[in-house]
Amino acid sequence: MGPFAAPSGGERMVVGPGEGRITVDGPVGVVEKVHGRRTNGVISIVEHPIAPGVLVPPHTHADFDEWSYVLEGRVGARIGDQEFTAEPGSYILKPRRIMHAFWNAGPAPARIIEIITPAGFEEFFADVGEMLRADAFDAERMTALRKLHGTTADLAWVPELEERYGVRSVG
Q: Engineering a disulfide at 44: which of 36, 50, 61, 162 sits with its beta carbon 3.0 to 4.6 angstroms away?
């Protein structure tokens, strides 16, 4: 990786409130704030609005760490054998190769900023968004996208988390 490139003529160096590219619009949304091409692949940044009662199922990333900052709401998480609820202002660290799941733990919408290192996983979200917009969601295609982007799902925790926290898994 080389040094960061200087901004070109029309490239803005700020992403304002409410800006960003919506790649997934749903109970767990994805708003791409900073694509990895803007950081020479060092990081990417996305925002996840999470509807009340929604669980992102357990999964593991082979090559990506995720660093989440809770902007609003209450976010529950299980990372390996640790389970907790994070309030606004909290950071949640989801290291690569450790299974993790997260959910909206409150009655109101939640929102997190996720910093992904290195960049690249934002392409998974873009691919999922494309599939959803084409109304072509199916389990086989989702499995293929996970594999392409170095992610595996393991639903073993889902029944326990759904029962304990009154949430429902997406996907």
A: 36
